[in-house]
Design goal:
14 helices; two-stranded antiparallel ribbon
């Protein structure tokens, strides 16, 4: 029997969002880990806000919403707020009831900037990492490092000489710029849209882009990120960030570090050895700095196999996390996005390792 298509515009519902979300939904174990992390950050949140005045958006809800933006590949905060208006799953995860009013996207963005000022993304990432440590998921001996380019939200037309203060007058909003035959370098040119972005190309034959560079230090047991950085894109940024992350690894015992052949540089290998780190770096065809005292061990070959798993991290962050191109401008804001994406990746990975979902 065909059912009636009743166009009922108003109704009462006595079922909460909690009851509508299935018990085996993949977000449920993630919500448990996120709530535990936010509980640890509660003292910081208390210090961030004044004790008087009109109540603001709870920082816990802002962080949960930003994580949803990563999990479900939502391109903008305007679209995120729109989803919160009618998506029951999103309301449940953030902590909004059926009747709670959703914030304006501009108010949400201003409150998100408050989190950036207090480096909440980094503290949240560290809290999630400590949960992985307590679950005995992390290796403290074997690591892998790599970097990736993240395209900046700026066009090549905006990359103009630093001493040229007069913008193009022809072409209207999308002005015409002819830079053929010009030699453009970061020393003499700068983007007027995002001055902190740098022009760089990944390799020979590749086009140069305005971009930032993201770095990740992965432990080799579970493939989790234990440290991350976002820097300006330069030819030495990968190795400099790798050394900084290795220096922050706790403990004094010998560790290993896997990396691709771009890290096979004599000065970098020497610095690693002074930091009690065995360089399990892929060898260049010519002029390698890795000798047989490293390559003769079976652990070296094992590190080269596991090293490729770090590419899965960047692939997830660029596709699911929508970080192939930045959503914001400026090093500080892009670093917040990158760190939150790293924390989100760890949450998804830990859900699989602990709950098998």
């Amino acid at each position: 029997m065909r059912g009636d298509d009743l166009q009922q515009q108003a109704m009462f519902s006595y079922i909460s969002p909690e009851a509508r979300v299935p018990k085996d939904h993949p977000l449920r174990p993630i919500q448990i880990m996120v709530d535990n992390a936010l509980f640890d950050l509660a003292p910081l949140f208390k210090e961030m806000y004044s004790h008087t005045g009109r109540p603001s958006i709870p920082p816990e809800q802002i962080l949960r919403a930003l994580l949803l933006q990563v999990f479900y590949s939502i391109r903008s905060e305007r679209m995120l707020v729109e989803q919160l208006e009618y998506n029951l799953l999103f309301r449940w995860f953030v902590g909004l009831s059926m009747d709670d009013k959703v914030w304006d996207h501009s108010v949400f963005s201003k409150n998100r900037d408050r989190l950036i000022q207090h480096d909440v993304a980094t503290l949240f990432f560290e809290t999630i990492r400590r949960q992985a440590e307590r679950a005995d998921l992390l290796s403290n001996e074997h690591f892998t490092v790599d970097g990736t380019l993240i395209e900046a939200w700026a066009s090549m037309k905006s990359f103009r000489p630093k001493d040229d203060q007069d913008p193009p007058t022809s072409g209207g909003r999308n002005s015409e710029v002819d830079f053929k035959g010009q030699q453009r370098k970061n020393d003499t040119h700068q983007s007027t849209t995002d001055p902190e972005a740098r022009l760089l190309k990944k390799g020979k034959g590749k086009e140069a882009k305005l971009c930032f560079m993201g770095h990740a230090l992965m432990e080799n047991r579970s493939g989790l990120i234990v440290d991350s950085r976002l820097t300006q894109a330069t030819g030495t940024a990968e190795r400099s960030a790798a050394l900084e992350m290795i220096e922050d690894v706790p403990g004094t015992k010998q560790i290993t570090l896997g990396a691709d052949r771009g890290y096979d540089v004599a000065s970098f290998v020497k610095e690693l050895r002074t930091l009690r780190t065995t360089p399990h770096v892929a060898q260049k065809t010519k002029g390698t700095a890795i000798d047989k005292r490293t390559t003769r061990h079976t652990g070296y070959q094992t590190s080269l196999k596991i090293r490729k798993r770090v590419e899965e991290i960047f692939g997830w962050m660029k596709t699911t996390g929508v970080l192939r191109k930045t959503r914001h401008r400026g090093l500080e804001r892009v670093e917040c996005d990158f760190t939150l994406a790293a924390a989100a990746y760890n949450l998804v990975r830990m859900r699989t390792l602990i709950w098998g979902l």
